[in-house]
Amino acid sequence: MSDTLAQIDGLQVAFAGHDGALTPAVRGVSLTVRRGERLGIVGESGSGKSLTGRALLGLLPPEAKWSANALRFEGQDLLAMRPKARRRLCGTRMSMILQDPKYSLNPVMTVAQQMRETFVRQAPKQGRREIRERIVAALAAVHIRDPERVADAYPHELSGGMGQRVMIAMMVSAGPRLLVADEPTSALDVLVSMQVLSVLDEMIYRHDTGLVFISHDLPLVMSFCDRVAVMYGGRIVETCAARDLARATHPYTRGLLEANPPLENPPDELPTLRRDPAWLDEGAAR
Ligand SMILES: Nc1ncnc2c1ncn2[C@@H]1O[C@H](COP(=O)(O)OP(=O)(O)OP(=O)(O)O)[C@@H](O)[C@H]1O
Ligand SMILES: [Mg+2]
């Protein structure tokens, strides 16, 4: 079986402004995710990280104008797939933890009602009590302290960090082969972040899941991921092994790294991130 789990080739995403003119947001992104691999995507705000992840799942906003030469997952051509079959893949073999859990949880359903759908889809013959136990166990696995109470809560009753953990529990419990996690730990304190990362670790180990890990946290990506793609202005400007990121050569990546000064020996002044319009026109995958 091929080692390649998912592939994006030549993804373009644009949005129409008030005058109808298209503004490109993703400009020819190509990337591959292997089975069991953790691929980090870093880059400044607005560089196209979330849109790239969403395109793979078929979750681009309806107003997006997009095209790709190829989108493949487990050998299947996602572009040729019927919408119904594509939707069935989402939440089962491929899932996404969205950047803002507020928009991804259904406000009029309790946590347990939403999670039940995932479990029923996986094993339709399970009894209600068995499903309830699995829901509570999944919430406990992301270190939610009172999982019984949270299971019966509505999304507006949860804090941001709790909502994020509920999302993670929901997506991880489906045992996806591909998980796109968009800033999954940004609303969590350090301790809970570490616990959530260990939940992701276990999922990767158990299901050989390929993880696309979108984050602003370069030191975290360097330690948690195998490979890193750096995005700038809707393109991937550099891809390298995570352990080599500190030696990255692209001036934008260097700028990002220098914006994360070492704690032990901080410089007197933080450098300004330098941007050069010429980088926008460089090759899509350096
Ligand atoms: N629904 C939309 N309508 C118009 N423009 C959009 C829409 N969604 C995204 N964009 C634009 O596309 C660009 C890339 O967006 P994207 O969400 O992928 O950025 P990002 O790299 O994930 O940023 P962040 O780090 O802030 O999450 C941004 O400039 C954004 O303004
Ligand atoms: Mg984003």
TrEMBL record:
Chain segments annotated as transmembrane: none
The family database entries (InterPro entries) matched by this protein are listed as: AAA+_ATPase (IPR003593), ABC_Ni/Peptide_Import (IPR050388), ABC_transporter-like_ATP-bd (IPR003439), P-loop_NTPase (IPR027417)
Annotated membrane topology: Peripheral membrane protein
Q: Which PROSITE patterns match?
A: ABC_TRANSPORTER_2
The record's section on CDD domains has: ABC_NikE_OppD_transporters
Give the location in the cell: Cell inner membrane
Give the principal location in a single coarse category: membrane
Q: Where is the signal peptide?
A: none
SMART domains from the entry?
Answer: AAA
Tell me the GO molecular function terms.
Answer: ATP binding; ATP hydrolysis activity
Query: Basic and acidic residues: which segments have biased composition?
Result: 271-286
One Pfam family of this chain: ABC_tran
A cellular component term (GO) from this record? Answer: plasma membrane
Region: Disordered, residue numbers: 256-286
Residue ranges occupied by any ABC transporter domain in the UniProt entry: 8-258
> Which keywords does UniProt give here?
ATP-binding, Cell inner membrane, Cell membrane, Membrane, Nucleotide-binding, Translocase, Transport
Q: Which family does it belong to?
A: Belongs to the ABC transporter superfamily.
What is the protein's name according to its record? ABC transporter
Traced from the root, the source organism's taxonomic lineage reads: Bacteria, Pseudomonadati, Pseudomonadota, Betaproteobacteria, Burkholderiales
